[in-house]
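Blackboard transcription, Thursday session:
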Amino acid sequence: MDLTPKVKFMGLTFDLTVIIGSLVTAVIVYILVTLLARRLSIRPTGRQNMLEYIIDFISGITGIMMEKKESLKYISFAMTTFLFIMIANLLGVIVIVTTEVTGPIPSLGLTASALEAANHSVSWFKSPTSDLNVTFAMAGAVMLYSHFAGAVKHPLAYAKDYFKPYWWMLPFNIIDELAKPVTHAARLWANIFAGEVLILILREGTLYLTAAPLLVWMGFSIFVGCIQAYIFTVLAMVYIGQKVSAD
Amino acid sequence: MTTILAGAIMIGLGALAAGIGDSILFARYMEGIARQPEARGTLFGQTMILFGLIEALPIISIAFGILVLFGIV
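(Written on the board underneath:)
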């Protein structure tokens, strides 16, 4: 566990590494998609083919629970979620920024005693998805949107859903709805967090002993990062589709 | 001592459960492609999604085990 700079604002503590990580990820995603979408033509070539492949892939995800016409509305949301999470996961695997801070900086929460305990090394960058608050915010937003959209679209069917299959199943249905965002968020966070901690532990070890496991684990982390981004998007679309689709 | 034991049990049982779950999943996948070799492509994609879903629970346990080991929770 490295020491991280924290900022206190209006009684809340903000982790600077998460803010820097999210900003860098957002900028990279923006630049990537802008570069791919330049000079569009009717007959796609090269970069445009790549972008169309990604959109095709995403429209497959949104089409799992909804009809084609309904699902077109959600393509941009699903694509933003997928690209942001995937780039964030991959950045956490390959980028580590650690500096040596000798003097205490009280405004960033780097007090002398904390620096002494962390051996003066301060981490400035980590994958935003390896922070529990970020994933819970994303899963919570998906949950709020799915309930809101379902209640607005067909209120009666939405309310009836809580009493299925029998009226006394109501407590179980409420627990089910509450457990959804928790597992949704914890699934993404735990995968990325465990991966990053293991990379940190292997990095500390002896070179000849841990270099090969580190390489293997980094390869596996890249695989896990892509899979988890896909699963997060699929689950978000399934949760929204359960509430929105009429049946 | 107790925190180390607690973290070790969480990580170990998580790995055990993941081993059982993944072995059942991949055994069924192998049976599937033995029965219908032409379905390999679609089965692989579905298997990987289910693998990610199964792998999540043990890895949640491992993440909390790490937190307990380092004394954060």
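Lecturer's comment: Chain B touches chain A at residues 48-49, 51-53, 55-56, 59-60, 62-64, 66, 70, 72 (CB under 8 Å).
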